[in-house]
Amino acid sequence: MRKLIMLALVGFGAQLVDGSLGMAYGVTSTTLLLAINTSAASASATVHLAEIGTTLASGAAHWRFGNVDWRVVRRVGVPGAIGAFLGATFLSGLSTAAAAPVMSLILLTLGCYLLVRFTVAGLPTGRVGLPLRKRFLGPLGLVAGFVDATGGGGWGPVGTPAILASGRMEPRRVIGSIDTSEFLVAVAASLGFLVGLGSENIDYGWVLALLIGGMAAAPIAAWLVRKVPPRVLGSAVGGMIILTNGRTLLRSEWIDAPTGVRYACYAVVAALWAAAVVWSVRQHLASRQTTTSPATATDTASGPDTAPAASATTERSGLADEVSST
Fold first, then answer.
1. What pLDDT is recorded for position 278?
2. How far apart are the first and last CA of the chain?
3. Which among 271, 281, 266 is positioned nearest to 235, based on CA atoms?
4. CA quadruple 195, 198, 201, 205: dihedral sign
5. pTM here?
């Protein structure tokens, strides 16, 4: 029972992060399952079965708060489902540990780009509102779906930064659309694992625990993403990607850094991430104050101090009308 309660709490926390940042549910949940010696395929299958419910609840909540672009959901979700099914059947008979450092390096690069772009320049404004092309969303969905199924997570870390980097959608709508389209990915991946593994290798008690925790957090996360300023949200997403994938690279066979070096790197990344978020918050508050200042100045100029002058002007106008009429 204690393990099931812990899994429910993990599902709650993972969905809270995933729903507000557009990533990390699969990564967090799969990491826990692997830590208790669950096989990679079984861990990914368990998480994706739970995600059928959590992504449905998350998508409904994001739709309720106006965070979903259904055209993007369709164009990225259908190829994502195809990639997820292929990835699930592939993982059922093959480990993908060797590919993890390559993908982490790509994601780390995207994370650095996003962190710098949103922290220094803020929310892109030049192209926001322009449509995203099928030739961009289709391949993105296919790759992200395959990575998500084979890695136990990755739909958000691949899809969210790629669409954010295009600068054509607000961060909250990117996150809402990615979270909603993940329902298709979760269904397809689950079918692939059931075909490749069969149902006997899946603990449905764990699935239910993760599902309950995730569904409880879904509406809170969808509300939260509307309240967090886009600039701050972009910095937070970039930092999350850097920290997550930097950890993977440091522990990979490529680097295999000592424990002390790894934790020193984590501390540096965390400090830079925190500084970036604080800077983004300050810049957001400063820009909001600048935006509201002209209106305040106008209100002040038209306030009580100018009332006598306005009254005098009205009186003079009325007197002139009387003279002209006589």
1. 94
2. 96
3. 281
4. positive
5. 0.63
Please tell me the predicted confidence (pLDDT) of residue 170: 79
CA 196 vs CA 69, 87, 92, 94: distances in Å = 33, 11, 5, 11
**How many whole angstroms separate alpha carbon 71 and alpha carbon 179?**
14
Q: How far apart are CA 258 and CA 261, in angstroms?
A: 5
The token pair that represents 42 in the structure block: 């079984």
pLDDT at 276: 93
State the Cα–Cα distance between residues 17 and 218, nearest whole angstrom.
Answer: 10
**The pLDDT of residue 302:** 46
pLDDT at 64: 85
* Neighbour-count burial of 159, counting CB atoms closer than 10 A to its CB (0-12 exposed, 13-18 middle, 19+ buried): buried
- Give residues with Cβ within 8 angstroms of 320, minimum separation 6: none
pLDDT along the chain (326 residues), means of 10: 76 72 69 65 78 82 86 92 89 60 71 81 56 83 86 76 78 84 90 77 78 79 72 79 81 84 94 94 85 53 44 41 40
Burial 70-82 (b: 16+ CB within 10 A, else e): eebbbbbbbbbbb
The Cβ of residue 112 has, within 10 Å, a number of other Cβ atoms equal to 16
CA torsion through residues 139, 136, 114, 20, sign:
negative
d(Cα 53, Cα 83) in Å, to the nearest integer?
Answer: 20
Residue 91's nearest CA partner among 183, 204, 208, 194 is 194
CA–CA dist 127, 289 (Å, integer): 24
Say how far apart CA 240 and CA 188 lie, in whole Å. 26
Give 3-state DSSP helix, strand, coil % of the chain, rounded to 5.
85, 0, 15
253 secondary structure, DSSP code = T
